[in-house]
Amino acid sequence: VQLQASGGGLVQAGGSLRLSCSVSGTIFSSKAPNWFRQAPGKQREWVATITSAGSTNYADSVKGRFTISRENAKNTVYLQMNNLKPEDTAVYSCMVRNYNVEYWGKGTQVTVSS
After folding, report:
1. Are 103 and 95 in contact (CB under 8 A)?
2. What is the radius of gyration, based on Cα positions, of the chain?
3. Distance in angstroms (rounded) separating the CA atoms of residues 57 and 70
4. What is the pLDDT of residue 85?
5. Average pLDDT of the residues of the chain
6. In 3D, which of 3, 27, 8 has the Cα closest to residue 81?
7. How many CB atoms lie within 10 A of CB 55?
């Protein structure tokens, strides 16, 4: 199973970014991909999950600003991030579980300037 995140960058506070994570090597449509983030000096933090049925869950810190979605035809999960804040600065990574094994992609850096 391989994952590749992309779409990070530098944005001003209040701006938006859309992250993408392509997944290969598994039946993507049956999986519940997750987004996590890790800021410098902090522990990794769960951000959002989307189930195979399309149900979504978010960390309180991003609820109302971030939207997770999926496109099964492209084996891709997205994270639309709006109204970004400096505290959203982190490396964002995607993860899927396959037979109870976690697979992580290389993260993408998001930097929000004030």
Report:
1. yes
2. 13
3. 13
4. 98
5. 97
6. 8
7. 9
Give pLDDT tens digits along the chain (114 positions). Answer: 999 999 999 999 999 999 999 999 999 999 999 999 999 999 999 999 999 999 999 999 999 999 999 999 999 999 999 999 999 999 999 999 999 999 999 999 999 999
Q: In one letter, which amino acid is 37?
A: R
Tokens representing 83 are 């109204």
Pull the structure tokens for residue 3.
């994952």
Going by the DSSP 8-state scheme, the letter that residue 54 receives in this structure is -
Distance of CA 33 to the CA centre of its chain: 8
- List, as one string, the DSSP characters of 53-97: T--EEE-TTTTTTEEEEEEGGGTEEEEEE-S--GGG-EEEEEEEE
* C-alpha span between 103 and 23 (Å, rounded): 10
- Token pair recorded at residue 9: 């960058």
Write the single-letter amino acid at 56.
Answer: T
The span from the CA of 108 to the CA of 35, in Å, is 11
